[in-house]
Every structure is written in structure tokens, then in C-alpha cells.
Amino acid sequence: MQKSLLWKASVYACFHLALFSPVTGISQAAVWSEPLFPRPWEPVTVYFDARFGNGGLKDCNCTVYIHTGVITNLSTQPSDWKYVFTQWGVANTGWAMTPVEGRTNLYKVEIKPDIRTYYRVPTSEEIRKMAFVFRNANGSREGKDNGNKDFFLDVFSQTGLVTSMVNPTEGSNLVLGLGNTISFLGRSSDTATLTLLDNGAVLRQLRGVQLDYTIGVVASGNHKVEFIAETATERQVKSFSYVVAVNKAPVDPPPGTIPGFTRLSPNTARFAIFAPNKQAVFLTGNFNDWGISDTFLMNRSTDGNLHWLEVNGLADGQSLFYQYIIEGGRRIGDPYSELVLDPSNDRWITPQTFPDLPAYPVGKASGMVTWVRPKTAYPWKVPNFQKPEKSRLQIYELLVRDFIGRHDYQTLTDTLEYLRRLGVNAIELMPVNEFEGNESWGYNPSYHMALDKYYGPPEKLKAFIDACHQRGIAVILDVVFNHAFDQSPLCQLYWDEDNRRPAINNPWLNPTPRHDFNVGHDFNHESQATRAFVKRVLRYWLEEFKFDGYRFDLSKGLTQTFTLGNPNAMAQRDPSRIAILKDYADHVWAFDPNAYVIMEHFANNDEETELVNMGMMVWGNLNHEFLEAAMGYSNNLSALDHRNRGWSSPGAIMYAESHDEERMMYKNLQFGNQSPDGIYRVRDLVTGLARSELATVFLYGVPGPRMLWQFGELGYDFSINTCPDLTITPGCRTANKPIRWDYRQVPARQRLYDVTRAMLELRNKYPVFHTQTFQTSLSNATQKTVVLRHPEFDAGIAGNFGVTSTTISVNFGGSGFVYEYFSGDSVLLVSGSASLSYLPGQYRLFTTKRLPRPVFGSLVTGNRKLEETEYPMTLFPNPAEGWLFIQYSLPRSGQYRCTIFDLTGRQVKNVFSGLLNSGNHSMELETSGLPPGAYFFRLQGEDGYTVKRFIVGR
Predict the structure, then answer these.
(1) Which end of the chain is more exposed for a tag (fewer CB within 10 A), N or C?
(2) How far, rounded to the nearest angstrom, does the alpha carbon of residue 175 sit from its chain's CA centroid?
(3) Order of strands, edge to edge, in the sheet holding 933-940?
(4) Are 180 and 280 in contact (CB under 8 A)?
(5) Is residue 142 in some structural domain?
(6) Whether 50 and 129 share a structural domain
(7) d(CA 171, CA 173)
């Protein structure tokens, strides 16, 4: 499950308490329990109101099921649910909730005979919370908390008196005006004397289990409100505060003041926040012991837009932590924070990932806290990196979380040699700015300018980028400006609490989305406030971290044109959207003229053409076409040729896989085609991997920028919808995926890596693979060809995407020999063509100049390279007619395997697999069962392998 903020729903006793005064900042309850204070040894009824949270099951008219577990003292993080007995997507009647009679969208479930027995938790473990996600029968719709988080209900293990301030919550600091009111709700687990005090004066006292009272705000200054519960043996006190701001004359800030934190001297800083029409904003932090006072009531500019304050006496060389407190007492971090502290998720970040992470100021702050660290200039080794040409980009897209087990920049840096050897010249990082929770794809942004600490500290990211630049690799950052999620201070500054969305007067965000593809809260890019914010963020990542450019997520959504309910209209040319994107691109290029500006756009061709002509690039999704081709079904890859879009130069970054698309090898293994006789089966692992080779050769064989999704070079075969328990359901799309570096030990996967590396190396070395003079024939479902022309030499590619043999002709023109790159074979042109028979899935890459053959077997295993010469081996006679004799020498005893592959990498025979002693060996192999042609004999051991080519004659 996704990590989440710990939802305080357990404080709600029953559904009629769900609505509160907007002044208090308390939300409607989506989940609560009866009794209010559930104990492990008692039964409890859990209620779920589908209208609230993410609203995923609102008005679903379906049976709602629970998916539940517990958080115990042995849990390591909020996602570490224990004793989960429900299974996602299974319609078990025992997990179905009961609709509450007379209430639409309200459901309940009874946890009995008691919590511990229900979950089967041993008495040795402490139950701290019950965890829930709600779903329909197949899991295609789910009810979660805001921000797509899990729900949690506190479980109280202590006996005796327990109290709760339902509203306002304990420790709240409210900012109010004279004449406002506060709706106070207090609860106790047992009958007690309940007293409510305001600065020591008794407001209300009674005997019972609940105290509800409306507090009138009638006096200025600071107020401390205490809720006291007393029995004969116990006494508990909880409190909150509120302050009534004094009138303060407007005053303009010094010229040049910008929103955010500005260090003026070692001991002085200016704080500023853009908050039009806010009457009062307080600054609080570790420099004033997190208090609220008139001293830290910020100045307000004469136009009412900017609140600012200069603070003296700051400690030199030490971290600062601060928040803004706005009307109603809502606390937010600075929208321009570079780092933030998270009260719920930081505890799960290890010192190994982020050393010396400060403790959250528990009891003094709530919500996200801005953290300003002492900062020194990073010593860049490559201060002026020369970026690869746009048309020659070979991008490796990765998610740090699912690429390396430690999910940190240091380990990612240590992995760079693998990527350099592969031949990529750019890495695209999925979003690394602060997002809700810890484990995420990153498309749920909360602080767009703050680095998310789950991957490591800023200096480690800078070291990673610097190390990439040293290897000639550019680094592109995925940014998300279509939307923001609830935690964003841009949401919280102007928030409609009743409807859980930005308020109608929010300067940055639309109250409701303008298009169907929106998630989170939709930015209004016609607003100058949004434009200023986005431009500041874009400048920051380029300047501070030396990123080489951006990939704009869902760039088609950066418009105010209303297409909600008509998604097809969204793709039509939108002049206002073009102007917005051009404005952002020009801002980026004003700082770095060579920066990449890449749009995930998928709009109509006329608009994408216009963007490309301006110098931007767009994503080119060929996932469906390539997967159909790899599986052996009807397909058309003609979109690989940019001229088919009317473009004179390539502007689309074409890919077969991305973070957002299904994996090729998963589809090959699950749904691959087969020959009519059933002998050739794409669903076989080795054959499926060979089909991925075929797709790889064509993807990189046509000129233009390209992208590879992580582990695609090894044939990653887990579905995009794989869950942590390895089941497959759409609800697990963004869940953690297995990290499979062990794929490198599988010979057929290693071959796919080698073919990918060979193709990238060709593109890196030879201009012919970036020529503008070429012909393609890519629309035929089975026979596809590419011919590339260049003064140095020509190249041609042919491939059989069918599941039966066929003859393919590649027309070079001229005469003489062409040379097959992977096998070294030479072919004499006949009437300018190389016409040959192709087995299913077979491909050939010809050049008119003989090139060095690619080196296979280059992957690192542990600390040893697998070398082709490690096992001395001789094959004779060659060509073989009837029998082939093999002699080889083994350096040590161990497990060995002998196999035969055809030229496509398809395994055609398993000769031997078992234990062999060290020393000299020989074997005889009958070849009469092999069709005439060229083959590879492979001897694979535990620490090396040898491959020899042989011919079977007629």
C-alpha cells in the first residue's frame, strides 16, 4: 500500500459529526468508528462515507469491499500492513460492507468478536492502527484518503480514561478576527467532569462523555483554550490556541523583494509570501519557539498581494524551520521551499538515504514545515556540459524507487557505468520534487521546488548529475505543472474545505478541472500568478542542479480551454495552449538556450508540428504498435519515420515502452502469437526475448531521438499493474515493482542487452543512423525494411515480424557485397538487392562497409566480467554435415549448460545441462535435425561462457 499521512478519522464518533465550521480547517470524515476509542479487546464498527477522501467509490451503486490490515509495533512504515487476510479483486462476501439504511454512500463493517481476534494478531504485538482501502468487486475503483492515501484508525491499547479534542484538534493555533466563532467538540471514553477554559475562565462545565460549545471570539490577543476531563482517579488536559490579529498599517517591501526566503546577512532574512486579499499572515518557526504573536504578524504591501517580514537575530550557520499561519489557523510551508519536513513520512527515511535528517518539531508545528539548510556552493567538475544534439538523444527513463534497492542518488551514481556501457546519452528522472507520501511515481506533487528527501539530499543529486556529465550523459527532469495535490501550499492558501478543493478565489488553481485527464487540482495557466510560479520553479532546477532540460508531464492539460466531458476536443489545436507552452519554453531558453523542452502532449499533428517548429520536442508513443509487432500480430510502425508527419527533421522522442505503458515482454509471454504448427511460440521466454531484439533493432535503426524504459534492455516482464504480492490489478499501477538486476545472469536476456547496446553504439558512432536520406517500409505487418544513405556508407535493416518464414528483399542499389553486422556474413547484391529467406522473428542489419562485429557477453556479474574467451573451445568440421565435434576445457568444476541458438538468438536445442569436472572435455553432436544455415553453440558456466559460430551444410 502507498505510504500516507496518518488520518485522524478515529476522532469522529458518528456520522452526524462530519460537518464542521470552515473556520476551523477540519474536513469531513470519510472513515470513523463506533466506539470512538476502539480497544484491541473490544468489537468495533467501522463506517466509510464514499463521498469523501478521493471519492473513488462515490455513487458507485456497487458492493463495497474492505481491504484491511493493521499497523503494529513491528511495522516499519505506514505501508507495512500486518495480518492482511483480504485479497484485492476477490468478491468475498465476508469482506463486503453493509450499506447504512437511509444513507447514500455510507457503509459499515463490524470488526468482531474483537480487533485482535478479527485480524489474528498475537498478544505479543501491540496493535496501533487499523488500515483500510475500500474497493468495488474487481478493484477497478477504490476509495482512499485525499491524495490517494490509505485510511487509518487509531487503536487504543491503554485502559482507563482517553480523551479527544475532535474540533479543533489538539495543539491547533487558530488565527481569527473579532466576531468569529469556534465550534468546539470534545469527547471522553468514560463519564467524567468535562471543563472548557479560555485563558483560565470557565466557558462550560458538565458531567458526561461529550462537551460541545460555541466559543465567541470577543477579545483581541492570544488565547489558550483547555479541555479538561476528570474522574475520581484520572485527569487529562488537552488544549489549543487562537489569536486575534491587531490592525497593522500596510507597508511596501524593499524593491526587488520576491516571494520565499531571502538571506540578507548571516543573521538576517526576509520572508515573503504572495497571498492576495489575506488580511493577516503570521510567521512562526524555530526562531520564535513556534509562537504566534503580533511581533511576527507579517507586513502587508499596499496592493494587498505580498506579506513580508524581516527577522533579525537568526543563528548563523544553523538550519531554519518555519511556517506561515493564515486566517483560520491553517499552517503551510513556503511555496518556494527547497526542502520540507513531513510529520508523517520522514520517519521512514533512513540515515543511509538522508543523513542527519532533523526531527520534526512535534507539538509545535503541524503539516509541512519549510527547512532552510546552511548551503555552500557545490564544486562542479563539469560546470559547462555540452549537451547531445536533440535529434541524437538516446534517453533512459527511470524511477529511482524501482531501479535500485536503496532508492538513493549515491547508489544511482554507482550504477552509471552500467548505463554508460549501454550507450545512452541522457537519463530522464521521473519527478523528484516533493510529492505526497514517500513511495510514488511522483506525479502527486505538493512542493514543486522542494527536493523529495526519499531519494537523498541535494548534494547527492548534484553529484549524480555531475557524474553523468562527466560521462557525456545529459539529465532531464520530469516536471508536473498540470496539477498540484492537497498538501501543496498553493492549494492550502485558498481552500474550499466543504468541497475539498481549491477555493474559487485561488490565484493559481481552478476549483474544478478543465479537462478529463486531470488528477489532483488543475492549474490555471492563464493566471499570471501561476506563470510566475512555474517560471521560478523552472529556473531553479536548471540553475541549482544543472539539469539539462525538462519533460513536461501532461502538457496538453496546460490550458484553460474547457473540454471536460469531451476528451477528443482536448487534442484539437489550441492557440492559447501553444502560447502558454511557448512562454515557458522561451523562459527556459533565456537561461539555457540549449536546454531540452519535451512535451508529453499527444495532441493533433498540427499543434505538435507547431511546437516542434518552435524548438520543442514531443513524446512519441508507439507502445501499442511495437507490442503488437513483437507479439506477432498485425501492426504498422510507419510513425517511426518523422516524414510521415510532414516534418523535415525528427521532433518526436519515439519509444516502445515508458513508465506509463505495458511492458513488451509481459505481453509477449502472456499473449504472444505462434506459428500454425505450434513450433514457433512467442510465449516461450527465449523466443519472446528474440522478438524484443527484433523490435529494438527497428526502434533504434530509424533516425530520430529515442527513449528506453528501465530494464527494457533486459526484457522486464512484470506487468505495469503488478502488485507487491505479484498479483496483477489496475489498482497497483503505481505500486512498487520488483527490481531485477539478476536478469543479467540469464543468457537470452543478456543477448537482448547486447543487441540494445550494439544498436546504441552504432547510433553513437556512425552518422548514417542520423541521416536525413533514407527510405522506410514499415506498414507491412510482417516484412519491414529500412535503408539509410550516407557518404561514409549505407545501411539496411530487414526483419520478419510474422510467425512463419518469408523472403525479404532490401534494395541498396549498386553492386558488390553488403555485410551483416551481427553475424559478419557477407551477401552479394543481385540487381542492387539483398533478397534472403527470414525465419520468424529474424532480422538482419546490413552495411556497405564492413564494421567490427559487436562484442556480446559484456554484462558484469558480481565483480567479474563474462568473457567469450574464458573457456577454450574448438568446433569441427565447420561447415558440419551430419556430425559436429566439440572440444573444450573447463577451469573448474561446476554447473554448465550447452545450447544452440540461431542467428536471431532463438534457442533451437538444449544439448546439455548439469555438473562437469574441470579439465578437457569433448562431445559429438548430430546435426542432421538442424535445417541448413548458421548457428551459435554456447557453453555457459557459473563464471563465464563461450560462443562459437558454425554452419550446417546441405
Answers:
(1) C
(2) 37
(3) 907-916, 894-902, 933-940, 945-952
(4) no
(5) yes
(6) yes
(7) 6
User: Range of 792's domain?
Assistant: 762-847
C-alpha cell at 659: 513508465
Cα distances (Å, whole numbers) of residue 830 to 616, 814, 818, 837: 44, 9, 11, 14
Place of cell 532508492: 407
How confident is the model at residue 942, as a pLDDT? Answer: 64
- What length does the chain have? 954
CB atoms within 10 A of CB 268: 13
Q: What is the DSSP string of 862-887?
A: TTEE--TTSS-EEEESSSBSSEEEEE
**Tens digits of per-residue pLDDT, 851-866?**
998 878 654 332 333 3
The H or E element containing residue 469 is helix 458-470
Of the candidates 537, 546, 540, which has an alpha carbon nearest to the alpha carbon of residue 386? 546
Q: Is the pLDDT of residue 816 over 60?
A: yes
Same domain, 15 and 63: yes
Q: Are 342 and 360 in contact (CB under 8 A)?
A: yes
**Which of 244, 279, 306 represents a domain boundary (last residue)?**
244
- HEC profile of 751-804: HHHHHHHHHHHHHHHCHHHHCCCEEEECCCCCEEEEEECCCCCCEEEEEECCCC
Give every CB contact of residue 50 below 8 A, 6+ residues apart in sequence. Answer: 30, 56, 57, 58, 59, 60, 64, 105, 106, 107, 134, 143
Q: How far apart are alpha carbons 891 and 883 in whole angstroms? A: 26
Q: Same structural domain for residues 208 and 286?
A: no
Tell me the pLDDT band of 771, cut-offs 50, 70 and 90.
very high
Q: Residue 832: left (phi > 0), alpha (psi -120 to 50), or beta?
A: left
Distance CA 168, CA 20 (A): 10
CA distance 616 to 17: 52
- Whether residue 855 is contained in a domain is answered as no
For 906-916, the pLDDT digits (tens) are 788 888 877 77
Residues 129 and 196 in one domain: no
155 pairs with which residues across the strands? none
Give the strand pairing for 163-167 and 181-198: antiparallel
Q: Which run of H or of E encompasses 250?
A: none
What is the pLDDT, as a whole number, of residue 946? 86
Q: Provide the CB-side half-sphere exposure for 305 (13 A, CA).
A: 8
Indicate whether 677 and 777 sit together in one domain.
no
Amino acid 906: pLDDT: 78
The answer to whether position 919 is within a domain reads yes
Q: Which of 372, 407, 424 is the last residue of a domain?
A: 372
Domain count across the chain? 6
Rounded to an integer, what is the distance from CA 524 to the centroid of its chain?
Answer: 23
Strand partners, 944: none
Do the beta carbons of residue 11 and residue 27 sit within 8 Å?
no
587 domain-assigned = no
Query: Do residues 132 and 148 lie in contact, with contact meaning Cβ atoms separated by under 8 Å?
Result: no
**Interatomic CA distance for residues 125 and 847, integer angstroms:** 68
| 296 and 408 share one domain | no
Separation between Cα atoms, residue 292 and residue 322, nearest integer Å: 12
675 and 653 in a common domain: yes
Residue 494: which H helix or E strand, with range? none
Each as own residue / partner, the long-range contacts of residues 361-364 (CB below 8 Å, 24 or more positions apart, any chain) are 361/286, 361/290, 361/321, 363/171, 364/289, 364/290
Q: Which H/E stretch holds residue 42?
A: none
Torsion of Cα atoms, 347 then 350 then 355 then 357, to 10°: 0
> According to the 3-state scheme, what is the secondary structure of 559-602?
CCCCCCCCHHHHHCCCHHHHHHHHHHHHHHHHHCCCCEEEECCC
Question: What are the φ and ψ backbone dihedral angles of 479, each rounded to 5 degrees?
Answer: -120, 150
Three-state DSSP state, 307: strand
Q: Model-level pTM?
A: 0.78
Q: What is the pLDDT of residue 726?
A: 92
